[in-house]
Design a protein that fits this description.
The chain has eight helices and no strands. Helices cover 62% and strands 0% of the residues. The model has no long low-confidence stretch (mean pLDDT 83). α5 packs antiparallel against α6. It is mainly α. The longest helix has 19 residues, at 87-105. The protein is flat and about 55 Å long. The chain has helices at residues 2-7, 15-18, 20-24, 46-61, 67-82, 87-105, 107-110, 113-118.
């Protein structure tokens, strides 16, 4: 409730929040806004290559994740497939959700951090 109250502290008041509701119910007009469209897989794009590569790596290496992290990654993946504008969200949050479990599973990727700190820089 405090966040909603803080969001209303602007020259337009709560109008900035309330304007989203008429936008969501525009219906057919939303198809003309490209960032609200779902992902298009009719041609091979960078998003498809990255997602398929990540799943291929996970299947090949036998990656296991905690249930909560699986739910979070699949939720962000669902958002990125439903609207183009959420693909960046997957790119930002996916590595955050996966960093620690992958580092624990692949100790060679985690490496010895003290050895790196002692090496002279090039």
């Amino acid at each position: 409730m405090l966040a909603v109250g803080a969001a209303c502290l602007n020259p337009d008041g709560p109008e900035m929040i309330l304007v989203t509701f008429p936008t969501v119910v525009l219906g057919a007009a939303l198809t003309t806004v490209t960032e609200w469209r779902p992902q298009d897989f009719t041609h091979l794009g960078a998003f498809e290559v990255i997602v398929l590569g990540a799943f291929g790596f996970a299947l090949y290496r036998g990656v296991t994740l905690p249930v909560l992290r699986i739910v979070m990654v699949l939720g962000v993946l669902h958002l990125s497939l439903s609207q183009v504008r959420h693909a960046d969200l997957l790119g930002m949050l996916g590595p955050i959700f996966l960093a620690r479990p992958l580092a624990e599973q692949f100790t060679t990727l985690a490496g010895d951090r003290t050895g790196m700190a002692l090496r002279p820089s090039a």
